[in-house]
Design goal:
The chain is mainly alpha-helical. It has one domain. It has helices at about 5-25, 30-40, 40-50, 50-65, 70-90, 100-110.
Length: about 110
């Protein structure tokens, strides 16, 4: 498998798992229960922060990239960064504004 494809797959997986653990309820609210169970301590703050959690979720996926030690380290940080970029891109809902038909007729006359 090509390195680029591995990187894209790993980035998507890191984003998916991090998003699921930090923001989703899960079936039967099991992820809500898990977040409550870890409490408000260090582990609870880690799970509440997408950025922090993505670093640790990305760690095992860095070995999936099959690089040398330096590539694995940089890949680890890049996977976290890629997941953060995906999170930022998907946070805001898409807001489409449809303009009234009259405005189009006025613009055409000018």
């Amino acid at each position: 498998m090509h390195y680029s494809f591995r990187f894209v797959l790993a980035t998507l997986a890191v984003w998916r798992i991090t998003h699921m653990l930090s923001q989703e309820d899960g079936p039967w609210d099991i992820l809500v229960w898990l977040r409550r169970a870890v409490g408000a301590g260090m582990l609870g703050r880690l799970v509440a922060c997408f950025y922090c959690l993505s670093i640790w979720v990305a760690l095992p996926f860095a070995w999936f990239l099959n690089g040398n030690l330096a590539e694995t380290f940089v890949g680890w940080l890049a996977l976290s960064g890629g997941a953060i970029m995906l999170e930022r891109l998907t946070q805001e809902p898409l807001d489409l504004k449809i303009e009234e038909e009259e405005r189009w007729h006025v613009a055409a006359k000018q």
